[in-house]
């Protein structure tokens, strides 16, 4: 009989948690994922688009063992373009163009579903709200308590390792860092997806394809004075857009950074969009059902990523603004590196494994979070490092290069490559 497999309890069944379950199972562990949602959130109103980098794509392909599946669910983002919109004349011109971008666009719910389908049945326990944990005196195991939301029963699940993948408002992180606070970025994001099924030849879609001719292969950023927007295409005839708007921190209730927008808010957004953006983009915003608002937060880098046999990954470990397209990519790569370290050191050297995980990941994620913060402030015309604000109308071509995605630290050589282990290409 083989040796008993080590066991991990993962809190959070979103991208970081499911990726972690895959990485740990690949490393010879067993994993149980505790998730408070009642079931998989396909078609969730909070879900929208995200960009996957080549390293994340490779990892997901490896875990799901069918590269075609992921390929079929995503759209290439080969080109990264920044443009400036002259809001008075309603015209745009290109500031930067990078044809070596090599990302792919996915809908959050599609990626989540691909990761979930490829896990052994029963890996995720849905409708369980994690409450607390206790580390044994000899630090050899962790016992978690969760409430089964359907019955109100409290159940215990034990493991050799507790992984906190419970998102940017992580309660496990709060246990170790009670004074930790998220930092409001200074702006919120309107987000939406226009489903144009059956409307491929409509004036709106033909118009947007004329104004954004490389949709389907390109990540478009439009900058105007003190604001910016994002537009790209997703599979199944969907256009994904975001629009960042400066303002005071909105009031919101506890456990979400997403706000459901009232009709009044949506109406005002449409009116503003007409003033700022080219008509083809403001029309896309106007045609979109149920746009919603994300309040944008991040945090200064955490001092560490693990305590005893508890480790943080994903947004719990590094809340970030979205401008470097990093949060999902960092989550997937955290999981990949954690799996690698656990396999390399084995359960008997768990602390060495967690130390290597932290040493490998902390410098990378810290730089990426701070870079993303800077990029957001530049594009929103906010002060960065006490210097003059960036004005896309007058910026020099050299200044504009800082807007490019490839300026994100570790863009070319992700830390994955620094590990001396053959990695699937
Ligand atoms: C429904 C949903 C839709 C999203 N859509 C997008 C998108 O379209 N584009 C994008 O860029 N990002 C999206 N995100 C965010 C994105 O997943 C993250 O920014 C990034 O991938 C990091 O993921 P994460 O798993 O670390 O955190 P999150 O995605 O925030 O996941 C945290 C998970 O932990 C669970 N959780 C928290 N507390 C508890 C508890 N006490 N007990 C049990 N479970 C708990 C939450 O329910 C959640 O599933 C979405 C997140 C969610 C949850």
UniProtKB/TrEMBL annotation:
It holds the Pfam family FAD_binding_3. It comes from the Eukaryota. GO terms for molecular function: FAD binding. Residues 7-175 form the FAD-binding domain. InterPro entries: DHP_3-monooxygenase, FAD-bd, FAD/NAD-bd_sf. PANTHER family: MONOOXYGENASE-LIKE, OS06G0597600 PROTEIN. This is (wild Malaysian banana) hypothetical protein. It comes from Musa acuminata subsp. malaccensis (Wild banana).
């Amino acid at each position: 009989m083989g040796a008993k497999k080590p066991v991990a309890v993962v809190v959070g069944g979103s991208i970081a948690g499911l990726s972690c379950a895959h990485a740990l199972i690949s490393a010879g562990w067993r994993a149980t994922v505790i998730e408070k949602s009642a079931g998989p959130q396909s078609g969730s109103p909070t879900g929208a688009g995200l960009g996957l980098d080549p390293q994340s794509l490779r990892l997901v392909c490896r875990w799901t063992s069918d590269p075609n599946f992921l390929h079929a669910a995503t759209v290439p983002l080969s080109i990264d373009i920044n443009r400036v919109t002259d809001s008075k004349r309603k015209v745009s011109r290109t500031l930067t163009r990078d044809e070596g971008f090599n990302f792919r666009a996915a809908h959050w719910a599609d990626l989540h579903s691909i990761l979930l389908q490829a896990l052994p049945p029963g890996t995720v326990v849905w409708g369980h709200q994690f409450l607390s944990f206790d580390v044994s005196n000899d630090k050899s195991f962790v016992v978690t308590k969760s409430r089964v939301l359907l019955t109100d029963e409290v159940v215990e699940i034990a493991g050799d390792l507790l992984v906190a993948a419970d998102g940017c408002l992580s309660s496990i992180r709060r246990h170790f860092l009670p004074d930790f606070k998220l930092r409001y970025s200074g702006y919120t994001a309107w987000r939406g997806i226009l489903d144009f099924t059956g409307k491929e030849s409509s004036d709106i879609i033909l118009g947007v394809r004329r104004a954004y001719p490389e949709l389907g292969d390109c990540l478009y950023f439009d900058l105007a004075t003190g604001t910016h927007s994002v537009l790209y295409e997703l599979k199944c005839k969907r256009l994904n857009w975001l629009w960042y708007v400066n303002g005071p921190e909105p009031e919101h209730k506890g456990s979400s950074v997403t706000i459901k927008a009232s009709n009044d808010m949506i109406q005002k957004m449409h009116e503003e969009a007409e003033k700022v953006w080219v008509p083809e983009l403001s029309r896309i915003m106007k045609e979109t059902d149920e746009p919603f608002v994300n309040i944008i937060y991040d945090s200064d880098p955490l001092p560490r990523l693990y305590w005893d046999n508890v480790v943080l990954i994903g947004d719990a470990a590094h809340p970030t603004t979205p401008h470097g397209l990093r949060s999902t990519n960092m989550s997937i790569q955290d999981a990949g590196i954690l799996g690698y370290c656990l396999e390399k050191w084995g359960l008997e050297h768990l602390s060495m494994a967690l130390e290597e995980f932290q040493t490998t990941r902390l410098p990378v994620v810290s730089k990426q979070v701070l870079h993303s913060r800077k990029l957001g402030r530049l594009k929103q015309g906010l002060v960065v490092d006490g210097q003059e604000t960036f004005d896309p109308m007058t910026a020099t071509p050299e200044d504009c290069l800082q807007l490019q995605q490839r300026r994100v630290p570790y863009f070319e050589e992700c830390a994955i490559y620094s590990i001396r282990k053959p990695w699937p290409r």
